[in-house]
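Two folds, back to back.
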Amino acid sequence: MISIKKKSNIFLIFFIFLSIFFYGYFINQNKGSIKLNNEEKNEDLSLSSIESGISKFKNVEYKANINGKDYITKAIEAIIIKDKSDLIQLNKVHSFTKLKDYTLLNIYSDKADYFETDKNIRYFNNVTIINKDKTITANMASFFPKKNLI
């Protein structure tokens, strides 16, 4: 018959092994990591070596709440340059907000510059502004949300 001391030692060893397994499998696992295949790894390495100091993001959305109004800007791609961290360059842009009469103001453009500190946006290349049944097209437009002016 196994003594109580031997049973407790066996239980202690089992508990230590179980703790190590639990830590190694669950706690030490990085749940925020993304697995890349070899093609994506090579693409990322070549991009970072060519364009150091530039960060690119896909499918971005910027929200600003100024004086109780939500101003939302979405883009297919955002580019942030390290030396100009206040300026965010956007490609294929769609901005929208609700006006006082509860209609939606939509602004579309191929490119835009979003100034993060004051939330101003300068749209250019095929700018289209739509509100109700009115459409305005332009080569460039600027939006100043704090002044509520476009």
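---
second:
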Amino acid sequence: MNREEIIKFFNEKLKENNIKISDEQMNNFILYMDNLIEWNKKINLTAIKEEKDIIVKHFIDSILIEKEVKGEKLIDIGSGAGFPGIPLKIVRNDLDVTLIDSVNKKVLFMQNTIDKLKLDNIIAVHCRAEDYAHDKQYRESFDVVTSRAVANMSTLVEYMLPFVKVGGKCICMKGPNSEEEINDSKKAISILGGEIERVEKYKIDDNDRCLVAIKKVKKTEQIYPRNQGKPLKVPLK
């Protein structure tokens, strides 16, 4: 696809999903895609390599949750190649965004993309969520915490909820057939100070998606998240 064809296709998908972006934002998305494709030749950032699939499965999927993002401070856990954090920053310049991932090569890619797009108030950090969440500077200091398909819900919420302030929100982006996983996570969510606000199923083209919004209703006990991989090995039940 040439640039004109990419823009035409992207605009069609934006219109289908009732999303509007500026010409500058469109240019940033195209720069982002070009950088992703180039880096993906050298390191494994994403299995999604076709331009149309990147637009639908990464960009549209990410910015569709923008309506859920209230407040200014957002942290994206297990960002990988920057989804959904960087697309959200492109469409919401008011956001102060922190992207974290435990794989340094992915962090280097995200920082390179941030620099190329000349985005302000967004950083990429190489760290583990269970360590970062115990830093007083970041613990319970964010309005919104996002994560996309990083882990099972019971594990994921132990990484996420310690970051969000009381009254803030976790946004978990999951695939189809998540009902059992969501139900199994309710005890963990309660232990960690959250409650499920709503679950929304939706489609992007033929892709079934599920959004789980969790409100933080009380402070998380200091022992969470547990370290040494325990949230993954022994999820709260």
